[in-house]
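A note from the maintainers: we've had questions about how concatenated examples are separated. There is no special marker in the raw files; a new sequence line simply starts the next protein. For clarity in this README we add a label.
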Amino acid sequence: CGDSLIWLQESRNKKCITLDLRKPDGKALMESLVAESDIVVENFRTGTLEKWGLGWESLRAINPGLIMLRVTGYGQTGPKAREPGFARIAHAFSGLTHLAGEADGPPLMPGSTTLADYLSGTYGVLGIMMALRSRDATGEGQTIDIGLYEPIFRFLDEMVPVYGHNGFVRERMGADTVNVVPHSHYPTADGKWIAIACTNDKMFERLANVMEQPELASDDRFGKVAARLEQRPTVNAVVTAWTSEMNQADLLTKLAAGEVPSGPIYNVADIFKDPQYAARENLVTRGDERIDEITMPNAMPKLSDTPGRIEHLGPALGAHNDEVFGGLLGLDTARIADLKTQGVI
């Protein structure tokens, strides 16, 4: 952390204090902070806060209206509750990693190694907002318990009900989609790729017309979903042969004109140059005394009346010790200096 780019981005707008919860004075300061707080977010391994005398029951006794988000590898219960967890392990345990890769290849990392971390935060905030509404009505706080694998597991659309209904185990399909085709990634003449999504017969008919091969959408060829699924390799090969003859920009222009859902497959350099990202202000640049400039994703979602804004980058460790311990808790300068000397803060 400190001044790393990930810290500067992910800790933006936050205040940063240091506090050793293992020391008696640190524990006491934590309890004082809890008394003044609405929400506590924890991502220690299950049982760690309890070991320090700062578990949910102890904190709730201090502040009955407290809301506590607990994010761990596997949640607070179950046989794996005390095992450590990382997003990569969550991807594997959730079933996502099994689906990533080519059919005849090994399971691959599904894009970002931190997907589960971000989604756990997203679901955590959703839980916090619901808990706040409940507290408005009852005055009582509660815990939100999330295992890292659970948000990923929830994202795997109909995989669970399908297996429960007929025992079908979805396997790796590369870029393809299990129940529709063509719904994949296709190469272009200039060495790039595009994504095409045809989710029904009407969309495929539009694609066939754009390809100037309307006969592909006839009933005796690939006009029906069932026929396309039965002949998936052939359908993909026909589309690939067509996309391979044109560059990416021309293909996307033709597909857009024909109302065929499609888009470019971007890397981050492409994103920096794209006018849609610019128009939506999805990228924002900030700097401070430590770094002249850093570009990062902007705040989202976009609220009409109270839009989010980035006030500062992730602060230095302990940058707000005086403000929080002095201003919020009322400790004097001498006491703060003593706590620093002891290594409590």
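[label: protein 2]
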Amino acid sequence: MEFLTNEKLTIVGAAGMIGSNMAQTALMMRLTPHLCLYDPYAPALEGVAEELRHCAFKGVDITFTSDVKEALTGASYIVSSGGAARKAGMTREDLLKGNAEIAARFGKDIRSYCPDVKHVVVVFNPADITGLIVLLYSGLKPSQVSTLAALDSTYGGHGEQMAVFASTTKVKGTPLAELIGTEKLPAEDWEKIRQQVVQGGKHIIDLRGRSSFQSPAYLSIEMIAAAMGGNPFTWPAGVYLSDGKFNHILMAMETILDRSGVHYNPVYGTPEEDKELERSYKHLCDLRDEVISMGIIPPVSEWNKLNKNIE
């Protein structure tokens, strides 16, 4: 079976559970024969590489390094889970300062070592903010950086402030909103479903004692595969917005990710859904402004000086 591309794919954070699953998924999907694994924690990184070699994937060149320059140089595609993991009792926002600093360093490293990278998928939390920081410091175009959201009809922040839209979803051709409050979907059942979506990550942590790793690993590789020219990724993804209503933020919208990058369409819901999305946007703006106050990123008015592709 041929590979989707012959270009270099680098997995950042490859020693972790998400990163190692990303690497295996990329090899199973035959994305590229040139896979580079990067992680500062060298012993575990070598262990991941050895395990993958024991899988005996045909025709692949698996390299690993704890030198970020070596890892990023020549990379056409990057997927990064290289932040601290979310633990029991933590929200995605609890990771803000440490992972924001990691994102800033990562963006600067991209600018230094692989400015010609074609697409970067950012996974580590809070992904909307870390993705924004990577975009700013990397100097890349907004279409070249996307973040994991991938929850059907869930927009805004990838956290417990996400906006769940029923009006944009269909069940066997019938709008979901028309089913809510009927015998097929009583209102209380819909509310349980909505809460399961919002609390999905927390529920997995409660059950497994650690943050999810299988779903983010698989979906992020589906995203980078789309950027490589595979099947377009049509689930919601995090994308940079600056269109008047939602400005200077990166958050989940209706998107298409393909070889040309990530692009979005406006989302139109019911008045209550629109208010929910606006609340989620406000929450992300507060997190963004907190990162600005920390000195990790400059004020919005100076973003164009940092990255000429940002308006």
